[in-house]
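Supplementary Methods, section 5.1.

A reviewer requested that the exact input to the structure prediction be made available. We therefore reproduce it here, unchanged from the version used in the analyses.
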Amino acid sequence: MLDVTGHDGAGPATAARPKPAGRRAMIGLLGPAFVAAIAYVDPGNVAANLTAGAQYGYLLVWVLVAANIMAVLVQYQSAKLGLVTGKSLPEILGERLKPLWRRAFWVQAEIVAAATDLAEVVGGAIALFLLFGLPLPLGAVIVGAVSMGLLAVQARNQQRPFEFIIIFLLGIITIGFLAGLFVSPPDPAGVAAGLIPGFQGPETVLLAASMLGATVMPHAIYVHSALSRDRHRPDPHVHVPAPALARLVKATRWDVVVALAFAGLVNIGMLLLAASTLGGAEGTDTIEGAHAAITSSLGPVIGVIFAVGLLASGLASTSVGCYAGGSIMEGLLKVRVPLMLRRIITLVPAVVLLSVGFDPTWGLVLSQVVLSFGIPFVLIPLVVLTSNKSLMGRFADGMALRIAAVVSVILVVALNLALLWLTFASAG
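The structure derived from this sequence is encoded token-by-token as follows.
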């Protein structure tokens, strides 16, 4: 297959002639961001957004809006880094960090990846319970088995088919989580009030951190650079002329904006649905309770559609999460574990926790808090690298983008520090 560099894989690498930048050709370059966007609509998002909407109405809408704007920014930076350098973010960090720091960085990244996978497998298991009454541990095993099939497509270097499957599942997720809004539309005045930043005690700060961790996903930032590289620059030694590279960067910008717009719409829609439907209902602090309340208020059809969306979310996001974990390990440690083996290993914690009766919804929310604390560790290196002109050349971040990225990092760190202070203050 001929890629944008003009190298067909049959002969030596040659400089490319840029292709015409027509609309149809530009659309053909889209896709990697939609795979990364799946991480933004995983079951952890469902738990955090439903909890926020059910307990506090429209209060935290502003958190999702701000987080989604931040997500567009950082995902674009990650994809651009992979395109320009031909390397993933973990690879570049693995080359620049000293051995001890590289291993320490990998440990925190793996903890983040494990928290992600826990949320995704648990969410899929809950969906199977809601749809078919299957025990949660069995549901987790089934989710893991199906995700192996999806990963097998990626393992055979079939990037485009893998993207098409994930985009199809994203469509199901969108329908599943937004269908209820057509039956129970939100209050416009409440939505407008929710756009004004504010909290109501430590619990809302915890939820905000959870929502931020569920929206700006560290593993999605790591993996997006790898997805862009694998699609457009599988051989980093092939020279890509500046016009062709500029065209790829432009296509990537649109890819990220469109994909994250879908993800943001779904996230905000979940919170609005919970606020308009679940406010004051009993038992909505769990996904099962929220599903029961949605079914009771909006009818069984909407309840089934919601559960199908949750299942698609779990299946798609756990596949992408496992792929991200493999990219992180390979880039930082230069160790490549087969995706199937990694899938089996990372499935174990979720099955064990569900088998011992751990509250699945609370586990989902806590996993997103863990992700929130992992965000600075990926954002700070990303901002530094994409601002480095010796690495990025003419594609280095401009001043406006750099300032926006620094502000994002400061906001994330400030929110996490506030969360720590309020948690210990309330405990004392």
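The mean pLDDT is 84. These observations are discussed further in the main text.
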